[in-house]
Fold this sequence. Notes:
The complex is a heterodimer. Chain A has a two-stranded antiparallel ribbon. By secondary structure, chain A is mainly alpha-helical. In chain A, 52% of the residues lie in helices and 2% in strands. Chain A has 10 helices and 2 strands, in the order H-H-H-H-H-H-H-H-H-E-E-H. In chain A, helix 2 runs antiparallel to helix 8. The model of chain A has no long low-confidence stretch (mean pLDDT 90). By secondary structure, chain B is of the alpha/beta class. Chain B has 2 domains: 3-120, Glutathione S-transferase Yfyf (Class Pi), Chain A, domain 2, CATH 1.20.1050.140; 137-290, Rossmann fold (3-Layer(aba) Sandwich). Helices cover 42% and strands 10% of the residues of chain B. Chain B has a 4-stranded parallel β-sheet. In chain B, strands 6-5-7-8 form a 4-stranded parallel β-sheet, with helices on both faces. Chains A and B meet through helix 7, helix 8, helix 9, strand 1 and helix 10 of A and helix 1, helix 2, helix 3, helix 5 and helix 8 of B.
Amino acid sequence: MSIIDLTSMGEPQSDQRKELNDRLTKLRDEISDYCFQCAKCTSGCEAHKLLELEPHKIVALLKRGLLNELVNADVIWTCMTCQKCRERCPQRVAPIEILFALKNMAVASGKQIPGKYTAMLQSILSMGLIQDIQQITTRTNKTAKREELGLPPISKPADVAKFQAGIMKIAMEKV
Amino acid sequence: MKKKYALFPGCLMPTEQYAYELSIRETLPILDIELVDVEGFSCCGEPMKSVNQLLTLYLSARNLAIAEKHHLDLFVPCAMCHLALTECQHILTENPAMKDRINGMLSAEGLQYTEKRHLVHTVDLLHDEIGIQKIKDHVKKPLNGLKIAAHYGCHILRPSEIGRPDDSENPQKIEALLKALGAEPMNYPQKLDCCGAPLLANLPESALTKTGQKLQAIQEQGIQGLVDVCPWCHKMFDSRQAKAGETVAAKLDVPVVYLTQLLGVALGIPEEKLGLDLNLSPVEKLQLGAAK
């Protein structure tokens, strides 16, 4: 079991891509009916000022069918997932959901997964959590670890093989 | 009457944000909440949403199914986990076909998701389940008008259509709780600004800039400190405060505490039991030991 099974960095995951494509097509159909480009999403966007994400433009580009361009654009990875665009849209369009679908599509198409996502995924596969117990430093520069602080053992999957078997079904199953 | 909840720890709190867990375990039993430790939980899936949303849904459902096996409701102190689990319940209720599909995968571990469980976060557990009056009755060392601001965290406020612990645009529950503890909650224009944490994975510099901008605004307004209720937000505002300051070229020294730590001080619990020595921001400036 590896990340290659779960994403598509080995061979293209046509089933997963097909499903994502259907999802994006559905989102696009909904947008065509409702979004009138008021840009309220962009006015509240947490990633707008800092990283120039403009959710209303993402919506407009999807509406025009520029799917490949969007999937390959770095800007889709600047979303801070604050949910303000979804919350505030007067037409109940959810740009954040479009961005999640686009990022999923980028991954399923074999594009490199950016940053630490690969390491986090690998950690989930090997122990169930995004990271193992860390040794921390206190304000007075002493070190401390979970058990030394009197905290009980950590909750995590007991049988990792079975845990992986469940996740494996996501990579294997036919849609 | 004790209320019983399974504690859903998630990833970040039990692996590095120990002060949150320590203060939760110290304070809630005093307020008649029984926390049950359940074996076998995993990541809620939220951090993987950008990579594979089906994986997120599967991991959330898996954790809910474990709680179901133990017939327990869930106390979820992390805002990210709380959103993932709430959203999962929402999707699986609205979409029976997806529920069947997820259950097909869950069978690998002999698990099954059948129905919604009651999920609470720190804010609604304290404000709605325990209640302001009961907390007031237990306060032994009021916080002496400490001028402190609340940071809620995006994920416990939105999207409101699936039900969140507080109002999406004008949340007031933390303020009400701070008042009950004898503090003076401060309003500020940046209250709903994001902490930046979701970008840590792929754009850490930008994530820290976001953190720095918010802390700088708080510092300039003469607010004494910041209260948060999410291990991700706290990691940014407290653990990474020095680095966040570098990104905005400012010397930041804003004390940042978990709400449960302040609660513990007000309940008369000694500071060391609340993990206050683990905060990396200058919490000594709050002079919590002097509160009476």
